[in-house]
Specification:
The chain is mostly helical. It is built from 18 helices and two strands. The radius of gyration is 21 Å and the shape is globular. Keywords: ANK repeat, Repeat.
Length: 315
């Protein structure tokens, strides 16, 4: 896979840490490359309503004209951001980059404001899971719009293929981007199944580790809050457990852009976790800088750092 397409891949995976490292070496040429659906990294970023604002700013600063690009299916990044339910602060950034986007009509026939008024939200998870799967193309992801309506592939003429190849070559010659991650990837659990297993089998479920040494709590920042709390109650010592890469649940929560409430729960359960390092020597606060953590969530960590109860013992 080319370095340019890695930007799209990291964005689709919401691997903000890897994307940030890649963008540090990126040039506008990298951001100009589209995937088979005619989508830029910015289009995929727009499908994530909670993309870190700082990350969105970097994408737009590097290639502001990306806000003008229509996907093969006819969507601007602005359309996708509104459909996904992005905050007004995020939507305004797309508008600032391309004010005419307000009057550009989406394939559904809606203007940007009309998309906002529908209150229908894009099912981003289903869109990504069904991408490329023939059997899933009829899955509904936005009102009556199917995956095949949002992700369209059109045959490319030889001239278009050459142009795309030229863009890839220019991007490749500009710089080499990192292609591997040494830390633990985020794992997705079926949280309803987890809740059922906790009910049937009790705390033992919360003590089970996978092949990377991860407990349920390591991924629970994406679980509904009641399941998150149930996992923490079932195994309160999990806040001190490290994966094989040395990651505590707090490290993983930061990486997953957990809510301030979840971060506070983890800090209250183990104040010292704020100072624990991974095997690469990173504390949760250092990870927060890497992934451009939301300011409110970052404030929870910084307040914890200032609290005398959270300072490590000097004994």
């Amino acid at each position: 896979m080319t370095s340019s397409l890695h930007l799209i891949r990291y964005t689709k995976l919401c691997d903000w840490a890897a994307l940030r490292r890649a963008l540090e070496k990126a040039l506008p040429e990298h951001l100009e490359v589209r995937d088979e659906y005619g989508m830029l990294a910015l289009h995929w970023a727009a499908t994530e309503k909670n993309i870190p604002v700082g990350m969105l700013d970097v994408l737009l600063d590097l290639y502001p004209d990306g806000a003008k690009v229509l996907s093969t299916a006819g969507y601007l990044p602005l359309h996708l951001a509104i459909m996904a339910g992005a905050s007004m602060a995020r939507v305004q950034r797309y508008i600032a980059a391309y004010p005419q986007g307000i009057t550009t009509v989406a394939p559904s026939g809606h203007s940007a404001f009309e998309l906002w008024e529908t209150k229908i939200r894009l099912d981003t998870r289903t869109l990504k899971r069904g991408e490329g799967l023939h059997s899933a193309q009829s899955a509904l992801v936005w009102g009556k719009a199917m995956i095949s309506d949002l992700l369209k592939v059109t045959p490319q003429s030889p001239s278009l293929r050459r142009r795309r190849g030229d863009l890839l070559s220019r991007a490749e010659s500009a710089s080499a981007l990192p292609i591997t991650l040494t830390d633990d990837p985020v794992r997705e659990w079926d949280w309803l199944d987890v809740q059922r297993r906790l009910t049937l089998h009790g705390p033992e479920v919360a003590r089970e580790r996978d092949d990377r040494g991860r407990l349920l709590l390591h991924g629970a920042s994406r679980a509904p809050i009641e399941i998150f709390d149930a996992i923490l109650r079932a195994n309160p010592l999990a806040v001190r457990a490290k994966t094989r890469s040395g990651l505590l649940p707090l490290h993983m929560a930061v990486r997953q852009h957990a809510s301030p409430r979840r971060l506070q729960r983890l800090l209250d359960a183990y104040p010292g976790s704020l100072y624990e390092e991974t095997y690469n020597g990173d504390t949760p606060l250092e990870w927060a800088d890497r992934v451009l953590l939301d300011p409110m969530a970052l404030d929870v960590l910084r307040k914890g750092q200032r609290s005398p109860l959270h300072k490590p013992s000097t004994d």
